[in-house]
């Protein structure tokens, strides 16, 4: 049973879903912007709600709502990428995108998290699901990883065309931002080239397809490489899919960071296991170290990150033979 506050939250989200699902178009407009702003503001405050415990009807509404948010986000990014692309120097005008400051905060947060788990600046990073406005790659490449090459993967050729137009006139980023039009499930051996792979929140908008992508990355990424994923926590899980530690088969779960401010996405970081655990002799060992129990999560505060973030880290007991 949910408390009254959570019940009111669910009712408000369902009411907004009904209005959004009846819109003729999800392209930016006064009405679309107003409804999605209401939805975000409804879901933003910290909430103890567990979306996995919702009834079947609300679960279905949540799944549909995530897809509608994905479509609207794609239209919003295409709209602003087109506007930015009309400037002589698009990168000088990124601030016109209404959520640009959120990307600056998220980029700094993700850089700080990544820095805790790597010893050298990565030469090559892949961003899967970069879209028409690849702000994560741009922010990281411009502000934090000044020598790294970013390989941006998107299934949509038009999205990549918009994105490339933003950096093509910049002498630095045009050399360090590469765009690939591919379904990531069709990309195999070249994934070994990347020390870090980012997976966008809306690549795999349901649990099955998200896990399919994660399993593919686990198969082809280089041993020891870092996987950064976007997730969601509490009521924010009405907006984006949730990635649990137990979804990361083939990876060592390192930590998950839950921002409490206007940055909506949680950040999950994991490391590809150095060696595959496949032989029958290793099965017992594998069951001890694979992060397959979502309950093995300890919450604590990390002084390196803004106090407004909740941080969880999986603790695995040492096994002695």
TrEMBL record:
Biological process terms in GO annotation: nicotianamine biosynthetic process
- Record's keyword annotation contains S-adenosyl-L-methionine: yes
Task: Extract the PROSITE patterns matched here.
Answer: NAS
List the InterPro entries.
Nicotian_synth, SAM-dependent_MTases_sf
- What EC number(s) does this enzyme carry? 2.5.1.43
Q: What is this protein called?
A: Nicotianamine synthase
EC main class here is transferase
């Amino acid at each position: 049973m949910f408390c009254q506050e959570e019940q009111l939250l669910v009712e408000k989200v369902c009411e907004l879903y009904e209005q959004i699902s009846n819109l003729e178009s999800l392209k930016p407009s006064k009405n679309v912007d107003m409804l999605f702003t209401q939805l975000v503001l409804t879901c933003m405050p910290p909430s103890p709600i567990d979306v996995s415990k919702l009834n079947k009807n609300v679960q279905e509404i949540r799944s549909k709502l995530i897809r509608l948010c994905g479509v609207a986000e794609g239209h919003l990014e295409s709209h602003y990428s087109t506007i930015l692309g009309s400037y002589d120097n698009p990168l000088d005008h990124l601030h016109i995108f209404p959520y640009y400051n959120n990307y600056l905060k998220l980029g700094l947060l993700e850089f700080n998290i990544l820095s805790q788990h790597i010893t050298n600046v990565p030469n090559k990073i892949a961003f899967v699901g970069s879209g028409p406005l690849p702000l994560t790659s741009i922010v990281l490449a411009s502000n934090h990883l000044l020598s790294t090459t970013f390989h941006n993967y998107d299934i949509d050729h038009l999205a990549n065309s918009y994105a490339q137009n933003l950096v093509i006139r910049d002498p630095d980023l045009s050399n360090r931002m590469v765009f690939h039009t591919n379904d990531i499930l069709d990309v195999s051996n070249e994934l070994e080239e990347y020390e870090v792979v980012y997976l966008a929140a809306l690549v795999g908008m349901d649990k099955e397809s998200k896990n399919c992508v994660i399993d593919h990355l686990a198969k082809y990424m280089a041993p020891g490489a870092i996987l950064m994923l976007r997730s969601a926590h509490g009521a924010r899980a009405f907006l984006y899919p949730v990635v649990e530690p137990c979804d990361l088969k083939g990876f060592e779960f390192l930590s998950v960071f839950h921002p409490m401010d206007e940055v909506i996405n949680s950040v999950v970081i994991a490391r590809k296991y150095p060696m595959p655990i496949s032989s029958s002799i290793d099965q017992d060992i594998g069951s001890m170290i694979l992060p397959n129990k979502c309950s093995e999560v300890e919450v604590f505060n990390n002084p390196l990150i803004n106090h407004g973030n909740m941080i969880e880290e999986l603790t695995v007991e040492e096994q002695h033979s």
